[in-house]
Design a protein that fits this description.
Length: 374
């Protein structure tokens, strides 16, 4: 199995982990990375611009700590032979005395809170020691410019290299081993197997036992009740478990119908129109047709929902370079585009761990029924 350094942290937690990519999170992370790499903030929101500036200032501070002159690389490919693992270092600075600093920006939000995300940086540091024979010590720092949190500085020199290599190698070998057993935890929320993973059964059963005594209370119309915080929490646990399962069931049922199977007893096949839409490759033709029909641009614009990500994607095909396309598109709408945000609940395992939450919910559930097990 070809392993990506960014998956090492989750593979250390579960050898069967397979990441579900979230394009929204990935896109946001890529744009911020590009701004930090190029120093071109055109079109970034004021808050994101401040974040990118802070990251660059941090990098300059690290650079100043090295023996001068410094060889400075942005988005540098490195490769560790012993691990057969390559990756791109966000910023690599090599001091004149053979000390190198590897900086990795964590701009996405897709790491479970119990993952040891320094493993990715350590793999890069090993790659630097392989690719730069004059480097005797690699220092690694992982920093999240959004939260301004920074990891402790990691250090690998030629003497400690073998130990770190063997630790990461054992994670890779465990992931490659078909007999390795899955290990559940908060990382399951990012795993492609989570809707069908047998290792999750005890977790799901325990969660259900916890929330079921109060399930009738929990299922009261959520828009008209104002539950106390503990009940809201129990409801959120139940929702996240059911949501994941429902999505998988829906996909499986849709696939079953698509294959021409008869609907199961009690159900019938329905075909519902989702409205007329213009296929992506016909958008220009549609625009010309609307104009030819005398429909004013202001009316067409009012009916459009311009997704900048999509326009950047299309522009990249024209100019052949995503950074250039991003600067062009974002620059064009600077001062017009507004930043969208969303608010949602997510588990805070650092604040309240699973065992404490379960105990708290058992106490707080309205029925007060104690359950000993399934
Ligand atoms: S869902 Fe299963 S395979 Fe995926 S991370 Fe969790 S335990 Fe591992």
């Amino acid at each position: 199995m070809k392993i990506r350094p960014s998956n090492l942290a989750c593979l250390a937690l579960c050898p069967k982990f397979a990441r579900v990519d979230n394009p929204l999170v990935t896109d946001a992370g890529t744009l911020m990375h590009e701004a930090i790499a190029t120093g071109n903030y055109t079109g970034l929101s004021e808050s994101d611009k401040g974040i990118a500036e802070g990251a660059l200032a941090f990098a300059e501070q690290e650079k100043a700590s090295l023996a001068q002159p410094v060889r400075d690389f942005v988005e540098k490919r490195v490769y560790c032979k012993a691990l057969d693992l390559g990756g791109t270092v966000d910023r690599l600075m090599v001091g004149a005395d053979g000390t190198a600093i590897v900086l990795d920006w964590k701009t996405g939000l897709n790491m479970p809170d119990d993952a040891d995300d320094s493993l990715q940086v350590q793999a890069y540091m090993l790659g630097v020691l392989d690719d730069f024979p004059d480097v005797h010590t690699a220092l690694g720092v992982l920093t999240n410019p959004r939260t301004q949190s920074t990891s402790v500085s990691m250090r690998i020199d030629r003497e400690s290299k073998a130990g770190v290599t063997s630790r990461i190698l054992s994670i890779i070998q465990r992931a490659d081993d078909p007999f390795s057993a899955p290990v559940p935890g908060s990382h399951c929320a990012r795993c492609r197997h989570s809707h069908r993973c047998w290792a999750l059964v005890p977790t799901i059963r325990a969660s259900a036992v916890t929330v079921l005594p109060g399930v009738l209370e929990l299922l009261r119309d959520p828009t008209v009740v104002t539950p106390p915080p503990e009940i809201r929490s129990a409801r959120a646990v139940l929702r996240s478990i059911l949501e994941r399962w429902c999505e998988a069931v829906k996909d499986a049922d849709n696939e079953y119908l698509k294959q021409g199977n008869d609907p199961p007893p009690g159900f019938k096949r329905m075909i519902r129109s989702t409205g007329l839409r213009i296929p992506e490759n016909e958008r220009l033709a549609a625009l010309h047709a609307l104009r030819a029909a005398g429909i004013d641009d202001s009316i067409i614009a009012a009916g459009c929902n311009l997704a900048l990500g999509k326009i950047i994607e299309a522009m990249t095909l024209v100019v052949g370079d995503k950074k250039e396309a991003t600067a062009l598109v974002q620059g064009a709408v600077a001062g017009i585009a507004v930043e969208g945000t969303t608010e949602y609940l997510t588990r805070d395992r650092k604040g309240v761990d699973d065992a404490t939450l379960v105990a708290m919910l058992r106490k707080a559930l309205p029925s007060g029924v104690e359950q000993d097990g399934p």
